[in-house]
C-alpha cells in the first residue's frame, strides 16, 4: 500500500496510473493537495515517453511544497485533471 510521507517542508504523494484500456496510452494528471492552516499545493506528472501498455501500471511519487506552510498530517488530495491519449501507430 502506498502512503503519503512528510519530510520537513515537503510532502511526497504516491500515485499509480493503470491502463485498463485495450490500447497503449499516454497519461497526464494534476493533483491538488490541501490541508489545515491554508496548505494548498498542486503537482502534475505525465507518462508520455513510452506510454503504458494495456494492463500495465506506472507508479510515481510527486513531491510538493507550499512555502510558508508545513505539510499536513492528513492531507486532502484531489485529482484535478486526467488526460489519456491512445497511441496512434
Key traits:
single chain; three-stranded antiparallel β-sheet; mainly beta; 89 residues; 63% strand
What does this structure look like?
The chain contains no helices and six strands. It is mostly beta strands and 89 residues long. It has a three-stranded antiparallel beta sheet with strand order 1-2-5, with no helix packed on it. It has a three-stranded antiparallel beta sheet with strand order 4-3-6, with no helix packed on it. A hairpin with a 2-residue loop joins strand 1 (5-7) and strand 2 (10-18). It is elongated and about 50 Å long.
Shape: elongated
Q: Percent of residues in beta strands?
A: over 45%
Alpha carbon gyration radius: 15 Å
Structural class by secondary-structure content: mainly beta
N-to-C SSE string, H for helix and E for strand: EEEEEE
Adjacency order of strands in the biggest sheet: 1-2-5
Q: What percent of residues adopt helix (DSSP H or I)?
A: under 10%
Largest sheet: 3 strands, antiparallel
Q: Unreliable segments (pLDDT under 50, ≥5 consecutive)?
A: none
> What is the typical, i.e. mean, pLDDT?
93
- The number of helices is 0
Count of extended strands: 6
Termini, distance in Å? Answer: 35 Å
Amino acid at each position: 500500500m502506498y502512503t503519503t510521507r512528510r519530510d520537513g517542508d515537503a510532502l511526497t504523494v504516491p500515485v499509480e496510473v493503470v491502463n485498463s484500456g485495450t490500447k497503449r496510452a499516454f497519461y497526464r494528471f494534476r493533483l491538488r493537495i490541501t490541508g489545515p492552516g491554508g496548505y494548498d499545493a498542486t503537482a502534475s506528472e505525465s507518462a508520455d515517453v513510452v506510454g503504458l501498455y494495456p494492463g500495465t501500471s506506472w507508479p510515481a511519487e510527486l513531491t510538493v511544497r507550499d512555502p510558508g506552510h508545513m505539510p499536513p498530517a492528513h492531507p486532502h488530495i484531489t485529482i484535478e485533471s486526467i488526460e489519456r491519449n491512445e497511441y496512434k501507430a
